[in-house]
């Protein structure tokens, strides 16, 4: 017997390192694209979103039932469908409940689920959640043989792909994700407008993008704001790519002693109001650098009734001039880069508005 026993391992195929790395990286890239980062065009969900909603449905967490601890929900999802750690699952659950992230939240949360000031959510052991009313429409008739079920990661359970989804969630709530070599960034839209566009497509399958835009005027962001111009929106709807400029909504109010204040009530989507790197901090920095000397104070009067950021001006200042400076130097005017990429039959495609509705 030789000093080293050779253990047979089946067929051994010699391969060059470069070839093996290329093949392995391609497999990894496709796994990320299909299994993690991009939404399915049919229900607008990534696998982790779909698994969270399905697990909550299986647990009976309907809108008319008591909420369950988020840690229980995360445990169910991780144990049955998504064995990739609790942090990304809880992050998904939190985002599905945030009114400033989702145009129509799919999860009804109770407790601290974060804020537009970039405050982190409370630990999962302190928060509770159940399905929101809109989520029930995504799951309705799931037991009526409406969608296919596939084995989960260990073959002991079944999970649906996609969800039945009675409304076009990809357009209604949008999506964002970074895959390998590609990304998606789809803005949310108004449910009523999107539904009218779907009906128009059903009535006339040959309808053009211009015809659909008579119903869908543009994105409808949960944080509000004003969309500047239509060329970026038209490009996005026609080609699947475009740049949408969004401006904060603000007005001027009189104060005592002849002073005036700029009051901001809506911000561009995904712009933080407070916290590190937030709008308030950036305005304060510009004041400190003497680039906005007209501003004397900033007060945040926001509440559960809405946003109210009061920017007090020096006596004699011209509010319109200050407002233009704020739009130029702060995120009160921002750009949303639209990239409507979604999975069609497990293949990533850049889609126009008409193609998204058609699928």
Give the arrangement of secondary structure elements.
Layout: H1 17-37, H2 47-58, E1 68-69, H3 70-80, H4 86-97, E2 107-110, E3 128-131, H5 133-139, E4 148-151, E5 158-161, H6 169-173, E6 175-178, E7 183-186, H7 191-203, H8 209-212, E8 226-228, H9 231-239, E9 241-247, E10 249-254, E11 260-266, H10 279-288, E12 295-300, E13 309-313, H11 319-329, E14 333-339, E15 341-344, E16 347-350, H12 353-358
Antiparallel strand pairs: 1-3, 2-3, 4-5, 6-7, 8-9, 9-14, 10-11, 11-13, 12-13, 15-16
Briefly characterize the structure.
This protein has 359 residues and is of the alpha+beta class. The chain has helices at 17-37, 47-58, 70-80, 86-97, 133-139, 169-173, 191-203, 209-212, 231-239, 279-288, 319-329, 353-358, and strands spanning 68-69, 107-110, 128-131, 148-151, 158-161, 175-178, 183-186, 226-228, 241-247, 249-254, 260-266, 295-300, 309-313, 333-339, 341-344, 347-350.
């Amino acid at each position: 017997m030789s000093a080293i026993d050779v253990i047979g391992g089946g067929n051994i195929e010699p391969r060059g390192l470069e070839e093996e790395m290329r093949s392995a990286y391609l497999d990894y890239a496709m796994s990320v694209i299909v299994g993690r980062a991009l939404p399915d065009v049919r229900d607008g969900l990534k696998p982790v979103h779909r698994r969270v909603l399905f697990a909550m449905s299986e647990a009976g967490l309907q809108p008319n039932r008591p909420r369950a601890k988020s840690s229980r929900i995360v445990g169910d999802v991780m144990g049955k469908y998504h064995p990739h750690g609790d942090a990304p699952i809880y992050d998904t659950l939190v985002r599905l409940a945030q009114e400033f992230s989702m145009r129509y939240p799919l999860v009804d949360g109770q407790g601290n689920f974060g804020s537009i000031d970039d405050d982190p959510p409370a630990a999962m052991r302190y928060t509770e959640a159940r399905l929101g009313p809109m989520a029930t429409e995504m799951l309705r008739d799931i037991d009526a043989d409406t969608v296919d079920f596939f084995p989960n990661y260990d073959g002991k359970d079944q999970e649906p792909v996609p969800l039945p989804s009675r409304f076009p969630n990809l357009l209604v709530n949008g999506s964002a994700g970074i895959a390998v070599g590609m990304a998606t960034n789809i803005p949310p839209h108004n449910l009523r407008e999107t539904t009218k566009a779907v009906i128009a497509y059903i009535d006339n399958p040959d309808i053009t993008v211009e015809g659909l835009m008579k119903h869908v005027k543009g994105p409808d962001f949960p944080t509000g704001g004003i969309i500047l111009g239509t060329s970026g929106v038209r490009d996005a709807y026609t080609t699947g790519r475009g740049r949408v400029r969004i401006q904060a909504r603000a007005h001027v109010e009189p104060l005592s002693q002849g002073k005036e204040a700029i009051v901001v009530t809506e911000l561009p989507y995904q712009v933080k109001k407070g916290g590190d790197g937030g709008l308030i901090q950036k305005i304060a920095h510009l004041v400190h650098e003497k680039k906005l000397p007209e501003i004397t104070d900033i007060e945040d009067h926001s509440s559960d009734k809405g946003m109210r950021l009061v920017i007090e001006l020096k006596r004699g200042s011209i509010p319109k001039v200050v407002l233009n400076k704020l739009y130029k130097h702060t995120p009160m005017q921002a750009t949303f880069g639209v990239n409507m990429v979604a999975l069609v039959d497990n293949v990533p495609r850049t889609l126009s508005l008409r193609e998204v509705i058609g699928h």
